[in-house]
């Protein structure tokens, strides 16, 4: 059965879903960094991110954060609700790292006085520039009420995930969320979209500060596959069959 491809991003492909208003999200092993200037393949990443994202989205639904996730279909695919993506990345930072350290000259690893939320305009050609609420509302990407909702959800996700990761010995340094508008008849609500995985979070080991996320790929630290597997193992979602299943992608029908 050939499904119609709707969209292909850097890490995922979206296909037409089995029923109206749904899509199938396929997780690739492709990895990119620095706005796709650096490319590679992380074997089994798609399988692990599918499991990790399923687990975290399900847990977030259980505390009342609405998401686009419906269910996992197989090793690399999940069924999601079709949403109109808001062209913003909402970044929550708890510890200085990455672009924040560079931009403001704060030493990487320094705890921030409080969680900081930043917005970036999703546009690869421009390198996803940082924007203010003023930009967001002026250019009509979202209105004030949308921004308030995204902010509230982002902070709730942060509170919940910080505790969840701490419970398995991981520090949630920072992470990126994307949101979409879900239309039910005439009603619109904002829901969490995309994925939550070591691709979109910085996760450090609590005792050693070892990086267990995509920074291993960005910075050529090696052991990328092992880092993703370690996060899945700690969360209790490492696929039973182990690494043999992580080879891919065979297009699963």
CATH fold description of the largest domain: D-amino Acid Aminotransferase, Chain A, domain 1
Say how many strands there are: 14
Total helical segments: 6
Low-confidence stretches: 247-253
Mean of all residue-level pLDDT scores: 94
Q: What's the main sheet like?
A: 7 strands, antiparallel
Alpha-beta content class:
alpha+beta
Shape: globular
Describe the structure.
There is one protein chain. The chain is α+β, with helices and mostly antiparallel strands and 253 residues long. It has two domains: 102 residues, Phosphorylase Kinase, domain 1 (2-Layer Sandwich), CATH 3.30.200; 122 residues, D-amino Acid Aminotransferase, Chain A, domain 1 (2-Layer Sandwich). It is built from six helices and 14 strands. Helix 1 runs parallel beside helix 6. It is globular.
